[in-house]
Amino acid sequence: MEFETLQTERLNLRRLDPEVYTYVFNKFTDIEIKLFFGLSSDKELIKEREKFNKGISTFNKSFILFQIIEKDSNKIIGWCGFHTWYIEHNRAEIGYALTENLQKSKGIMTEALYAIIEYGFKKMNLHRIEAFIGPENIASLKLITKFNFSREGILKEHYWKNNRMEDSIVFSLLKSNFISENNIS
């Protein structure tokens, strides 16, 4: 199986979707799975296998994620993509994370997200991309404003984090806005 990869100046973004997960879990050894997903322990492997075994997509929802891989080191340093894709409605929720603090504040996620947002609108035919961000997540709030996401409101006690319910600020980006702001055809 060939793995689709997007390239930016410093990054390779390797696509992960339900088909890739099925292939990897059916064809790779545990060691190969850990290397492919950048897992550092057997505990992480068990958790990833559990997600796969429980079902990672449904009849009307799926996902497309991308591993963020440094070109220089070929090291997996994070992920980004659409973890909740409502196929029938042409909309998806974007998510992202870097695995090490050393990688933060270097513009890596800005670089990766531009490619992912463009992919979502051009290849997945999304009409709308949504982001749900905790009010204390300053870095994520700054990042999302770089792409001119519009703030739409707050979902009260929407997300379980640090043993408590947390609000989520709702943002959206429409395809027409992104295309016109970035002169993309």
Descriptive account of the structure:
There is one protein chain. A hairpin with a 3-residue loop joins β1 and β2. The chain has an 8-stranded mixed beta sheet with strand order 1-2-3-4-5-6-8-7. It has 185 residues and is an alpha+beta fold. The model has no long low-confidence stretch (mean pLDDT 91). The protein is globular. It is built from 6 helices and 8 strands. Helix content is 34%, strand content 36%.
Across the major sheet, the strand order is 1-2-3-4-5-6-8-7
Q: In whole angstroms, how far apart are the ends?
A: 31 Å
Shape verdict: globular
Order of helices and strands: EEHHHEEEHEHEEH
Question: Structural class of the secondary elements?
Answer: alpha+beta
Helix content: 25-40%
Uncertain segments of ≥5 residues (pLDDT<50)? none
